[in-house]
Amino acid sequence: MTNAITIFLGLIAGMIALYQVKLNIISNSRIKWIETLRETISEYCMEISNCNILKINLLDENKRLKKNLERKESDNEILLDRYYIPYSESAKKAEKLHVKIMLYLNSENDYHRKMESLMIKNTTLIRKFEIDNSNELDVNINEMILGSKEIFRIEWKKSKRVFKR
Are 113 and 147 in contact (CB under 8 A)? Predict the structure, then answer.
């Protein structure tokens, strides 16, 4: 009888330990997810801003060169090398980060859907060669940062709750 009680208590202690290990793994995974998503969103916002600056510089330089009546072939090369190629590389990097962030988000969550929507708008705005959409991009980036903070706050609370069980 005492052996049965000892075995039973050992099994219960083992189950509690396994449960705690599972909770720790979940919490650690959630924290890692938060850190990775935070870093990726930060890089994305910086790349979108960089892409926007490069696009504006390209448009300004093109406008300046159009005013010059003696436009040379080398002017086109300067536009290409100095402005368009860096813009294109920046846009490509921003789209890669966009996809990476989308893979971290859950479309069933309202905050995540809002983030997805803002990123789609940013991609559309970056592809349009209009200077006047710069303010809209800035607003979208600020909204993404605020939305991200809310996502991280909620996830951090969930992570802390796991330890309290």
Answer: no
Q: Tokens for 121?
A: 């708008």
Please say whether the beta carbons of 99 and 40 come within 8 A.
no
Q: How far apart are CA 93 and CA 40, in angstroms?
A: 11
- Residue 148: phi and psi, rounded to 5, are -65, -45
> Which DSSP letter does residue 70 get?
T
- Residue 128 makes CB contacts below 8 A (sequence gap 6+) with none
First to last CA, the chain: 32
- Domain residue extents for the chain: 33-164
Place of tokens 């951090």: 156
Mind listing the pLDDT tens digit for each residue in 31-56? 898 999 999 999 999 999 999 999 88
